[in-house]
Design goal:
heterotrimer, B: mainly alpha, Helix Hairpins, 2 domains, about 0% strand, C: mainly alpha, about 75% helix
Chain lengths: ~500, ~140, ~140
């Protein structure tokens, strides 16, 4: 039995949530459906840890679906690169499910809770599948599974706030355009090379030079994925989708959804295409680098002027995605590794911040704006302390996870002769302190208009404590994350240099 | 030049449909028309793939025991079958969202909806401001 | 519409042949064009036709929502189940070779079950979509 599990781990990590989502939808008892979801995400997380062990003890695992040998059949590929997003998604989905126990029934009608958990598992399965698969078209299918499930989850917020429906609609339309662009790109590349396997594709692309269809295909794929990853000018769908989704869904999506797409972006740029190719170099230098810098500032400034806290955090996500793409755009091994470190840490930070804010919203039972935060910090000390720690982590204060990732990004940019980039990163981080302080000030120093009598519930703050602990832990001992990220960068950029 | 441009007329059809679809999605303010545009856009991609799969003189890819038969490429058709299913799911989800938006907002015009949203958003901030002002007194 | 005798009788006559045709497309998929997706839509069209002509209430009597949801999930589980069985028999996910006594028999059983799962899910998704859209009640509609 253990043999079978170990052998089939790459598919099990996708299949478990996918199959369980079909079973959860049939369960009418809400608590039971939550418990089953929690159990499923736990199993998935254990599988992902086993995969980590396998990848590091042995080598990359290539799994032939249906026993069809890779270039022809669909291949599931787990290597040192893809294991990082898999672990992030599995970990966050477990914590978010744990967090959802009390939050979800407060916002969703009783009759639709098991359906929401079914969609929830479907979204997780889609995201993990997206990362696992080594087949360009299979990737599209998972892209759509995850995004349609997330759209439906966001729309569930419509039971409380009608704006969620519009947010979900925009997410759907832009997501579908992004996915269709990606498919056009894949189609063009398939037309030239005759293969859909990502590894095989990269070999065959290396043989072709100077083909216009290749350039067009590359452009379509990259734009499509950038739209999904909410890279700066293509981020329009993100703030509203995250802000009006049900609380638990915001936590899950904010921490995981764009991360998977960012991983795909890195994969296309560095693994399918070659970084020594002019096409990729120019894209990185003249498109992604300036856009990332704009994203850092635009996101932060939009966050400073934002009054609605969930939207504020979503805007700050755009800035943080900017850091990650910036790190990718510098294009050295150290910087790509730094990008992966931030990919991991940002998932922890943003997940924790959304958890803290939405649990405050749960207790006062209305939308959180900057004005009704007053005095909440004193009323719920545990949530507040977690919120402050994670804010410090976001700003990049030492001893937190955020510091490690900022440190590595800055180090990488300096070693790549980009001292001005390092300055811009520092400036944007300093600006981010403005909106973080704005929230902390309101939480602690403003007095509440009425006496708040809030008793914090352990079901809600335990998940928050766990994720905050991880934030501190990976700030103190980042060796695992840093080493894995450098291994990933080595593998992505591999041969040259 | 002209013959090579017109010779690939199938790609022109794809291109034409793609642009119509994309224009409808971006240019129309009506949520329903956007979905129509999205469907046309996706259909153009289906045609793009099918075009790749056609080989001149190719027969359907079913084994017929004759040597040196040229078969058309079946793989794009299979891929598009999947893509069609994805497209159906997208359309269904989009239409159901439009229905819900219509029942909540009473309109499916983008301008009406964003006007209502803006009012709601200002209400949210203003009311909470009033509370904190009252307290300071 | 349920008052019109032509529609009623035509539907009653057509109902069984449509399903039969759906099943033909379903199982003919092994040897020629056809398969679960197409068959699922055809089978669903029979139930949708019934619901259009006799009304949604009668349609739901014939094919209740909970059975619909159950079959919808069952189709997916059947598909995944074939994969899990092939894993338990010691081969890769969805590897049909190990399912039967010989490779050919295994392939045959595997594709039959998988396509049946697909057909089940597709037909039930179609019916569920139809029910959901027809049954949609506007929140303003009741007050106006």
């Amino acid at each position: 039995m253990i043999d079978i599990i170990i052998k089939n781990l790459p598919i099990l990590v996708v299949l478990t949530p996918l199959m369980m989502s079909l079973i959860v939808v049939l369960i009418s008892n809400n608590f039971l459906s939550w418990l089953l979801t929690l159990f499923t995400t736990l199993i998935t997380f254990i599988f992902s840890l086993l995969l980590y062990q396998e990848v590091y003890l042995h080598t990359a695992i290539s799994y032939a679906l249906g026993n069809w040998v890779p270039p022809l059949g669909i291949e599931y590929l787990i290597d040192k690169v893809s294991i990082i997003p898999i672990i992030i998604i599995a970990l966050i989905s477990f914590l978010a499910t744990f967090f959802a126990s009390k939050i979800m029934p407060a916002e969703i009608n009783n009759s639709s809770i098991s359906k929401v958990y079914s969609l929830w598992l479907l979204a997780i399965a889609g995201l993990i599948g997206l990362v696992t698969t080594g087949d360009a078209f299979n990737l599209f299918v998972f892209l759509e599974i995850s995004s349609l499930a997330s759209v439906a989850l966001v729309a569930m917020g419509g039971q409380k706030d009608k704006q969620a429906l519009v947010a979900a609609y925009n997410y759907l339309i832009l997501g579908a355009i992004g996915a269709t662009f990606y498919v056009i790109g894949v189609g063009l590349l398939y037309g030239i090379t005759g293969t859909l396997n990502l590894a095989d594709l990269s070999n065959r692309i290396a043989e072709i030079s100077d083909n216009k269809a290749l350039i067009a295909g590359f452009g379509f794929m990259v734009i499509g994925i950038m739209l999904k990853a909410a890279v700066f000018p293509l981020h329009i769908w993100l703030p509203r989708a995250y802000a009006y989704a049900p609380s638990a869904v915001s936590v899950l999506l904010a921490a995981t959804a764009t991360k998977a797409s960012l991983y795909i972006l890195a994969r296309i740029l560095f693994s399918v295409f070659d970084i020594s190719d002019n096409l990729v170099t120019y894209t990185l230098q003249y498109i992604i680098l300036p856009l990332s810098i704009l994203a850092m500032f635009a996101g932060t400034i939009m966050a400073i002027y934002e009054k609605d806290i969930k939207r504020l955090l979503a805007h700050s996500s755009i800035a943080q995605i900017g850091y990650i793409t910036l790190a990718f755009a510098i294009g050295t091994k150290a910087s790509v590794a730094a990008g992966f470190i931030h990919l991991f840490n940002h998932a922890l930070i943003k997940g924790a911040l959304f958890m803290a804010i939405t649990s405050m919203g749960f207790y006062i039972n209305k939308r959180i704006t900057i004005n009704n935060l007053s005095g909440l910090g004193r009323a719920m000390p545990i949530t507040f302390v977690c919120f402050v720690i994670c804010s410090l982590s976001l700003a990049g204060i030492p001893l937190t996870a955020g510091f490690i990732s900022k440190l590595y990004i800055i180090k990488a940019s300096i070693s790549a002769d980009g001292i001005w980039i390092a300055f811009l990163i520092l400036a944007s981080s300093a600006l981010s302190v403005v909106y973080l302080w704005k929230m902390i000030e309101a939480l602690w120093f403003h007095e509440s208009p009425k006496v708040l009598n809030i008793k914090e519930k352990p079901e809600i703050y335990i998940a928050l404590l766990m994720i905050t602990f991880l934030n501190i832990y990976f700030g103190l001992d980042a060796s695992i994350v840093v080493n894995s990220s450098f291994e990933a960068a080595n593998q992505l950029l591999g041969v040259q240099k | 030049m002209i013959s090579s441009t017109l010779g690939v007329w199938n790609y022109w059809i794809v291109f034409f449909l793609m642009m119509i679809g994309l224009f409808l999605v971006i240019g129309r303010k009506n949520l329903l028309k956007k979905i129509v545009g999205l469907t046309i856009f996706q259909t153009s991609v289906f045609l793009l793939y099918i075009t790749f799969g056609k080989i001149q003189g190719g027969t359907p890819p079913i084994l017929n025991n004759i040597n040196e038969t040229v078969y058309s490429n079946p793989l794009p058709h299979v891929l598009i079958l999947t893509a069609i299913v994805v497209g159906v799911a997208t359309t269904a989800l989009g239409l159901s969202l439009v229905l819900r938006i219509n029942s909540e907002y009473g309109s499916i015009e983008e301008e009406d909806i964003s006007a209502q949203d803006l009012i709601d958003y200002h209400d949210l901030i203003e009311t909470s401001k009033k509370i904190s002002v009252k307290f300071k007194k | 519409m349920d008052k019109n005798p032509i529609l009623r009788i035509a539907t009653k006559i057509l109902f069984a042949p449509i399903i039969l045709f759906g099943l033909y497309v379903q199982f003919h998929g092994d040897f020629g064009p056809g398969g679960g997706f197409q068959a699922g839509v055809i089978v669903a069209s029979a139930f949708i036709l019934y619901a259009i002509v006799f009304g949604l209430e009668k349609g739901k009597e014939l094919f209740p929502l909970n059975i619909n949801l159950f079959l919808l999930a069952l189709g997916g589980i059947l598909y995944g189940g074939v994969g899990i069985v092939s894993m338990l028999l010691g081969d890769e996910f969805l590897s049909y070779n190990v399912l039967g006594s010989s490779k050919q028999a295994g392939q045959h059983i595997g594709i039959l079950l998988v396509e049946f799962g697909v057909g089940l899910t597709v037909s039930n998704v179609m019916i569920a979509l139809f029910y959901a859209f027809v049954d949609f009640k506007s929140s303003n509609g009741e007050t106006k």
